[in-house]
Design goal:
The complex is a heterodimer of chains A (246) and B (484). By secondary structure, chain A is α/β, with parallel strands linked by helices. Helices cover 37% and strands 26% of the residues of chain A. In chain A, strands 6-7-8-3-9-10 form a 6-stranded mixed beta sheet, with helices on both faces. A 4-stranded antiparallel beta sheet of chain A has the order 2-1-4-5, with helices on one face. Chain B has a 5-stranded antiparallel beta sheet with strand order 1-2-8-4-5. Chain B is elongated.
Chain lengths: 246, 484
């Protein structure tokens, strides 16, 4: 793979919390425009891996490159890096004291130094994109979980990220609210957004993923196209997991 | 403030008394009857003032001149003075220190505001005539008043009694007038016939102590209204130090809050008020009081703010940082605004505590609500001024306690994912019923309001997440400063 093709390159990543080794020599490549879905049981280290990509967790060892820039280099401006890496959390993490629109505007104003008018215009555009133009002036507490998560996606998109990280974005939602969020993610994928998605939604993985990674015990057990991983899993653990889930 | 003038009047009165004493003992050579002393008994609760328009006892003394024998004296009160039905007058005649009892009749003329004394046995040169007029009111105007009068000798000649020495009168305030009026009311008299009611809730004393106690109340309020805003930045600074990664700053803040919260405010007041003068530092006691209160409250506010900041979910920091916001941007745009909303009820409680604690300053002689009411209690031996003081504390604390309750309920609702408190109030409903209906409205709006707490996760997964979070917290502590 050529250097210019790579969006995220994770090489020999390891991460320990005290004596507990959560990630062991993880290597992952994410090509520009591709959708990588990471599967695995709880505690497999997939969320920690994702959080290492925008340095919410500090890697214990290894290297991570985003668009060819090494972010694990201590000289890297982390805030600058994070502008281009959007993240969506399981618990949405909207700012509860701000309306949906202001949630989307805040970082634009503070980080990108956009004017109020421009930030507002972009906020309304992104909210419309996730189907929530009508709810711009609602507070998070006045929105359903699915709506909150869509606002969170709009908030990340307003920063014009080069890659989006989804950390179990639908796990905290009631089943009937999951679809709206997945639809938004599907559309994003179709528009060519580079995405790294940690999820338990198998159907979504099958439909949308370009590349599927199965992790367990802090290592990548198996990876490949959805066909390879879902229909012809090579490892016992992968088979067990897929059988158990579906 | 009337009370500030009291020492001034005290001086005037003492001077007047001293003068009259001097004059009394000056040997008299005059050939005519001379008035040498007039005094009135203080009739204001808690001061030496002589109030106008309020019953008092006036004592008037004159000495018969050389070669005179007097059989009639008329003592004329100044214009505006009043005798009532209850007024009486008592006559005493003295020769040196010897008390004489010449036959005499005393009559009060209410309309003319004078007292006439007729002697069937005339009084003679050098003898002293004392007339005491009870339940008599002087004019209700601030200033000096003099008594005048005439006398008649046995040979039929009439003389003018010159102006008496001055009595300094202070005009009665509306409260004192009401108090005087209450004195006359049969219902009040019946109320006061019950010992408990008289001692703890005497209507006249309630009314007459209000101006004094209110003065103390304003001072207490001023102490806390100046002190508390000073404590807020102090507490905020200390809370930042306490959560800071710098060990030194943390330790400084920990020592400050530890000592202040671990010792009684009473002791801190003693140390400040008695210690600083020992060091030769002299500060106005009100200024010092404000600083002591602020310094004390700052330590409590520090803990309130620290707990508030740390109660903000970690996800808020992560979301801000993942959007590229810097630490200070995160703090001021995301964390502090949420913290303020959360700590306002606790801060209000702290304000209430501090306000009540101003009473401790009485121990070191700072004139505030407590000490003002005590001054009346010690003069009257009646508990009523303390009850009035209690009312003055309560008119501030009770509404604030109510505010705290409402805010706490709202906060609890907001935290439970209920509707945010931004809706307009409809009608005059109670806050609680309003909030209940707000929840109902939200439910109507979206029947699938999710509860994104633990229940929606698979139980097993939730347990694992908790364990992972614990691990994470541990690891972060160990690593100290992580990826920043």
């Amino acid at each position: 793979m050529s250097e210019t093709d790579s969006m995220v390159s994770i090489q020999h990543l390891s991460k320990s919390f005290g004596d507990t080794e959560v990630l062991k020599d993880v290597n992952i490549e994410v090509k520009k425009g591709s959708v990588v879905v990471v599967l695995g049981p709880s505690g497999s280290g997939k969320s920690t891996m994702l959080r290492c990509i925008n340095l919410l967790e500090k890697p214990s060892g290894g290297h991570i490159y985003i668009e060819g820039n090494e972010i694990t280099d201590p000289k890297t401006d982390i805030n600058k890096l994070r502008e281009h890496v959007g993240m969506v959390f399981q618990q949405f993490n909207l700012f509860p004291h701000l309306t949906a629109k202001k949630n989307v505007m805040l970082a634009q104003r503070k980080v990108l130094k956009r004017s109020k008018e421009e930030a507002e215009q972009i906020a309304l555009k992104e909210l419309a994109r996730v189907g929530l133009a009508e709810r711009a002036d609602y507070l998070p507490s006045q929105l359903s979980g699915g709506q909150q998560q869509r606002v969170a996606i709009a908030r990340a998109l307003a920063m014009e990220p080069h890659v989006m990280l989804f950390d179990e974005a639908t796990s905290a939602l009631d089943p009937e609210l999951v679809r709206g969020v997945l639809d938004v993610m599907r559309e994003l994928a179709e528009e060519g957004m580079t995405m790294v998605v940690v999820t338990h939604e198998m159907q979504f993985a099958k439909d949308v993923a370009d590349h599927v990674i199965f992790m367990e015990g802090g290592v990548v057990v198996e990876e490949g196209t959805p066909d390879e991983v879902f229909d012809h899993p090579q490892h016992e653990r992968t088979k067990d997991f897929l059988g158990h889930i579906s | 403030m009337a009370s500030a003038l009291k020492p001034f009047f005290k001086h005037v009165l003492i001077t007047a008394l001293a003068l009259s004493v001097v004059i009394t003992f000056v040997p008299l050579i005059a050939g005519a009857m001379t008035v040498d002393s007039t005094t009135a008994k203080s009739n204001e609760t808690g001061s030496d003032n002589i109030l106008g328009g309020t019953p008092t006892r006036i004592t008037w003394e004159a000495v018969v001149g050389d070669g005179e024998t007097v059989n009639n004296v008329v003592v004329q009160l100044p214009q505006g003075s009043e005798f009532t039905d209850e007024s009486t007058a008592k006559v005493t005649v003295l020769e040196g220190t010897k008390r004489l009892s010449p036959a005499s009749t005393v009559s009060i003329d209410k309309a003319a505001a004078n007292v006439t004394v007729d002697f069937s046995d005339p009084i003679t040169a050098g003898q002293r005539l004392r007339v005491e007029m009870y339940k008599t009111s002087l004019p209700n105007v601030t200033g000096e008043v003099h008594l005048t009068g005439t006398y008649t000798t046995t040979d039929g000649s009439t003389g003018e009694l010159g102006e008496s020495p001055a009595i300094t009168v202070t005009a009665a305030s509306p409260a004192e007038k009401i108090s005087n009026w209450l004195d006359q009311q049969p219902a009040v008299q019946a109320w006061n016939s019950v010992t408990f009611l008289r001692l703890f809730f005497q209507p006249q004393l309630v009314v007459s102590s209000i101006p004094t106690v209110a003065t103390g109340w304003l001072i207490s309020l001023a102490l806390v209204l100046v002190g508390f805003p000073l404590a807020i930045p102090l507490g905020l600074l200390a809370s930042f130090m306490k959560i800071s990664r710098s060990k030194v700053l943390h330790v400084i803040a920990a020592i400050y809050t530890g000592i202040i919260r671990g010792t009684p405010l009473f002791l801190q007041i003693y140390i400040a008020f008695f210690g600083l003068p020992l060091l030769g530092v002299s500060i106005n006691q009100y200024v010092l009081a404000v600083f002591v209160m602020a310094f004390n409250s700052g330590a409590y506010l520090c803990e309130i703010f620290r707990a508030g900041i740390q109660s903000i979910p970690k996800g808020q920091f992560e979301a801000s940082r993942s959007l590229g916001m810097t630490g200070p941007q995160t703090m001021f745009s995301v964390i502090i605004p949420q913290t303020i909303r959360r700590v306002i009820p606790t801060m209000t409680s702290e304000f209430i505590l501090l306000y009540k604690d101003t009473s401790l300053l009485a121990a070191v002689g700072v004139m505030e609500l407590m000490l003002y009411s005590r001054s009346i209690v010690s003069l009257t031996g009646n508990m009523t001024p303390y009850i009035v003081a209690a009312i003055f504390y309560l008119i501030v604390t009770l509404p604030l306690i109510r505010v705290v309750t409402v805010l706490e309920k709202r906060l609890a609702l907001a935290d439970n994912g209920g509707s945010a408190p931004k809706k307009k109030r409809k009608g005059r409903r109670g806050a609680f019923s309003q909030m209940k209906s707000e929840i109902a409205e939200t439910v109507d709006e979206d029947p699938f309001e999710p509860d994104y707490n633990a229940q929606t996760l698979h139980h097993e997964e939730y347990e694992e997440k908790k364990a992972a979070e614990r691990k994470l917290a541990e690891a972060e502590k160990k690593n100290g400063e992580a990826h920043e």
